[in-house]
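Q: My collaborator sent me two sequences in one message, no labels, and asked for predicted structures for both. Can we handle them in order? The first one she listed is below.
A: Yes, handling them in the order given. First sequence, followed by its structure tokens:
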Amino acid sequence: MKLLLSLILVMTIALNCCKSIRLDSNKIDYSKVQNQVGQQQCFTSSGQLPTGYSSSYLLLSFNGNYPTASGIQQSSFLESGYIDIDFVSEQLYVEFLLDNGNTKTRGSFWGFGGNSTQYVSVELNGSEYCFQQPLTYSVPTFDGLKYATDFEIGTVQCDMFESKPSDLGNSSKAYLLVDKSDCSLISGSTENINNTPSGYTLTNYYYYTPSSNPSFFQLPSICLNQPNSHKLKLKSSPVQLPKVLENHPF
């Protein structure tokens, strides 16, 4: 666990790899939240839970557990991008760049809980395609978070929460660090447990905003014009979905 958390500094230095986007939006009023060490400050009531959030992110996985069609398997990679989640309308958007050491994949993902449909736009062999699928991700909720302890990054006092992501079963334990002063997400991590091979993941959040931007849920014309859903039936399909949604800490 100490080794995992020490990687936060390394990933902070790699901030310039992320797509940094600042959004103007209405924020939750945390003016009455007092920064008290030794007790939970954030998410103590439904009024403190954001209706959505948007953030740039950097995700590093070293042999981390991930769900596959054949069960939990380990994977190492670096992924950076931008994520926007609307908890109320159950909508997801991710712009991502995944580097597994051999290949790099750039793409965009849209997920809609209302009609249980997802779209992924990727570049394949120099051409851009948009694929339509049944929704494979559920919109995350804060219900599974359990306050664990206080934590500190630099001089920032944080609440540490823990959970067990449902799609990872009992193979992983997840942690989430939240700034006590404004309840913004700072960092999430997972650790392989229960006799699975040793592995860790770490996700840092940058330019966090505690609300969603509706403009990101507008599909581009390429996804509205006969999406290539039939190509996803090929076993050899190279289409890659963003890893950040498979490793969400809550």
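Q: And the one she listed second?
A: Here it is, processed independently of the first:
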Amino acid sequence: MLPILNSAAVPPHIRDYINKCYEAAGSRQGRFKATAKVHKSEPALRPINAKCGTGPESISKWLDYELQKLIPFIPSSIKDSKDYHARLTSKQWPAGTKIITADATAMYDNITIDHGIETVGNWLHHLKDNDELPGDFPGVQIILDALNFVMKFNITQFGDCFFKQLCGTAMGTSVAVVYAGLYYGWHEKVRLLPNYTEEIQDLARFVDDLSILWLGSLERFRELKRDINDFGILRWKVEEPSNEGIFLDLSISISPDGIVSTKTYQKPMNLYLYLLPSSAHQKHTMKGVILGELKRYHWQCTNIQDYVEVTRLFFQRLLRRGWEFNLLKRWFDDANYKVCNPPHVPPVISEPTTADDNDTNIYLKLGNFHPHYIPSRTCQQIFEEELSTILRDEIGIQRMIVCYKRAPNIGDKVSRTSLFQNRGEEVSTFMGRTPD
């Protein structure tokens, strides 16, 4: 096992968790597979190393938990597009402000291992020297040792062959996202923001998507573009400053006097594969999807005409999926009313769940959901009428929760992690063989 687990810097409960994961995993390694990027105009594959249930993944999950505490220190950090939208529309920006968007080219592949670990170390030492590390944060060296192990010893299995990843961020590991965020966040902190204090009005990044509100000359933009790409071997496709830009699922426009307006952006290759009426999902599932989508469209669209248009397209797409017109109309009318007339009540802040709370619940597991099965409300009614009194009085059960297993889907069949191999046609028989 790992020498780092003998360190006193690793909390005992974390050490026990990692040891149990290694015992349960045995010799299991990550499984390699690839899925098609069907939304791309040119054929492409997304490589995946399915590491769930492996020993090293337990260390990666712990690292992810600890490094998540450093996200507030990343200058460009945003939670999601709604967070960014609120920031953009909360004020009027200086006249002449434009937007610059950039997209990293294969970000995870182009973070070299040594440079990535060194950069995370720079973050940790900087925060430690300034006494900004959280009080419950482990030692700096133990984090770097664990990160070194996760990134440099990433093993994947494909058929009957095993491979070790030699460059780039470890595929499939839980810590990869926050690791990449900290990596480029350091460059933003020490290079981009100090050098362009007057020109950069706002800087936001969501993993490999970058947005800058810019007020500067074309010459200074060329310098910025050079500096954005001057960090390791990572390269960015940087768009020219403009009054319009696409960032995440927002189409952003900035008027000459600095007022921002937005609307919903949907990719041209989006297939809109919403649930079919014939699906075994409960019918009210689609009702909830409609309400959620209309809520998103409503806050994303500054102009009501844009909200109406994207809602109309959504309605037509569901019609094409086979949903009944009158049923959809009723659901859309109800959702639109709730979106446009939100209740004026303070949000309910629930108390965190404790182990004692779980002791008062009983779970009824019914397997895969099917429309013809007994409804969950019927199970709850039987529980209340027949069992609730005696269970509360005798063993303190306060609530019954009805659970369903996730139903199997096509993805379970076409993207298995274990590769089927005919005898005599194992992966090892093809490795190194020249094409016929």
